[in-house]
Design brief:
Structural class: alpha/beta
CATH architecture: 3-Layer(aba) Sandwich
CATH class: Alpha Beta
Strand order of the largest sheet: 1-2-3-4-5
Number of domains: 1
Bound molecules: NADP nicotinamide-adenine-dinucleotide phosphate
Strand content: 5-15%
Number of helices: 6
Largest sheet: 5 strands, mixed
CATH superfamily: NAD(P)-binding Rossmann-like Domain
CATH topology: Rossmann fold
Order of helices and strands: HEHEHHEHHEE
Radius of gyration: 17 Å
Length: 193
């Protein structure tokens, strides 16, 4: 295990991380875009949202994924079976958010975190299309409600451990060549968009 400091909103640290991985290993087999922030430090209800905060959430949860992925692509392209896993959220599912039968349809509206994950889902589909011919499989996943620093600060009920949440990431990171690409998954299978 090798730890590398990386701020996904800082181009210099991203470039430095790619250089270190390249120098040491010459290629990258798996990229898990896991870093994410909730924006719970300020108002994000659509009608009263702090626009700077919404931008910061998108900077990490969406633009940061593009920055890191593109910096790592030359290394991923040198792998025989590169996989990209984008850690999204069930809250990014428009289908769940609008299904009257699903509890998420009754959650309060937010302009930052849920749309940032919906955008990440859309981005995952576009990367999957772009990278399919190179044999790079790109999928989004949701870890479910896990007990982490993230949920501790939100005070939400959680039913899963961080290990539980990581299982779907490992599964998508180790897909065979005939595995899916451009999908959205949790432990139970396909998550509706
Ligand atoms: N926990 C859940 O129930 C849940 C449910 C659905 C989806 N998710 C998603 O799962 C992912 C992981 O969440 P988590 O629960 O493990 O949250 P967490 O405990 O708050 O951890 C988030 C991680 O992201 C890192 N990070 C944030 N901004 C970063 C940046 N600019 N550059 C580099 N790293 C950055 C943080 O690093 P520092 O600590 O150094 O800031 C931290 O290690 C997130 O994308 C989240 O949206 C979580």
């Amino acid at each position: 295990m090798h730890a590398i400091m990386l701020d996904i909103t800082d181009a210099a640290t991203i470039e430095a991380a790619a250089d270190r991985i390249g120098d040491r290993f010459g290629r990258l087999d798996v990229l898990v875009n896991n870093a994410g922030i909730s924006g719970s430090s300020g108002p994000t209800a659509p009608a009263t949202a702090d626009l700077d905060l919404v931008r910061r959430v998108f900077e990490t949860n969406f633009f940061g994924v593009i920055a890191v992925t593109n910096a790592m692509l030359p290394l991923l392209s040198r792998s025989a079976a590169a996989r990209i896993v984008n850690v999204s959220s069930g809250i990014g599912s428009l289908a769940r958010m609008t299904d009257p039968e699903h509890y998420m349809s009754r959650l309060a509206g937010h302009a930052a975190y849920p749309p940032s994950k919906t955008a990440l889902n859309a981005l995952s589909v576009q990367y999957a299309k772009d990278l399919r011919e190179r044999g790079i499989l790109v999928n989004a996943c949701t870890p479910g409600p896990c007990a982490t620093d993230f949920t501790r600060h939100l005070g939400l009920p959680v039913t899963r451990t961080a290990d539980d949440g990581a299982a779907i990431m490992v599964r998508l990171a180790t897909l065979g060549a005939d595995g899916p690409t451009g999908g959205f998954f949790d432990d139970d299978g396909v998550v509706p968009w």
